[in-house]
Amino acid sequence: MKTDRGVGLAIRILTTSSVTLRNCNLHPQLAELVQNESGLILFSGPTGSGKSTTMAAMLEEINATSNRHIITLESPIEYRLQPKKALIRQREVGVHTPSFEQGLMDCLREDPDVIVVGEMREAEAMRLTLSAAETGHLVMATLHGSNSADAVYRMMMSFPPERQGTVLAQLGDSLLAIITQKMTYREDQNLMVPTLEILMASHAVKNAVRKGEASKLISLLQVGGPDGSWTFERYASWLDQKREWIHPEPPAAAGIETASESTSSAPAFETQIDFVEEARTTAPRAYRPPPDVKPSTAPQTNQMRTLPPKRTVESSKRSVTRMDKEGRIEIPDLDFDLDALAAQVAKTVKGDDSDA
Description:
Layout: E1 2-3, E2 6-7, H1 29-33, E3 39-44, H2 51-65, E4 69-74, E5 87-92, H3 100-107, E6 114-117, H4 123-134, E7 138-143, H5 148-157, H6 161-174, E8 175-186, E9 191-200, H7 203-210, H8 216-222, H9 232-241, H10 259-262, H11 267-281, E10 322-323, E11 329-330, H12 338-350
Parallel strand pairs: 3-7, 3-8, 4-5, 4-6, 6-7
Antiparallel strand pairs: 1-2, 8-9, 10-11
């Protein structure tokens, strides 16, 4: 996004390990929810509370245990799911479908068994999600809410008053559970773990939803332990008794190529060496005296110095060249002295040597 200080960036870090109920330290009861053939599972919680990860873990449970057709509508796609037993088709809003509403209408014609709605934002998306749950599909969807009662209230208030009764009746008939989630830090494990509030859709809960009595859901959650409901406090007690903890694996470090490995392989590296060797051949030569200066007065820098052997690069196009400390070019493949050749050329120019 653009800000007053320039361009800003929001990054969501996803785990690199396998996303399963066990690896995410989630309660195994969630595996029982995805065994239903139809119904609606709502995920509620603030942004960044791990709703997408929990939903992906439940999808992996389906993928590993049953042969079903899963279609996801996400914005954006966060976890790439690899088909195992299930057939999985993931769609991103804005890329594969223009909107959640259009994606829901399309996927209902494609014989899905499980439909995942990344986020219910508009009333039309909520209506289509409820219709899909009523017509024999298992639907999982997310929306923002601090608890189960808040999720039902937000969904009800998204519609005009004349339609709220119909929406609440659909929600009460199709609801399986409302899962509210938040992340808590455990110092004993040095780990962030999800803490859940699970409201199972008992007969009392369904009746309260149909009547629009969202405030009663809090008390029904407190007494719903026998039905499988969990408050945040009870779930935290279960986490305190948990003995097996799974810590996310650190990302694998990328391999670093050593110098010895790099000199023995890539053509691109050979091209770089050729460029260096070409630069060496164009370096200035050492100072040489004019022809009229006697050899005794010539600087001593004209003498070739013997240097320790250097690493050379084989080339089929030219001789290998090396350079001494004073910038002189060494040509080890030649068997004559350059100084003697220069002196012979000087004598020839002055006419002192007819044999030249």
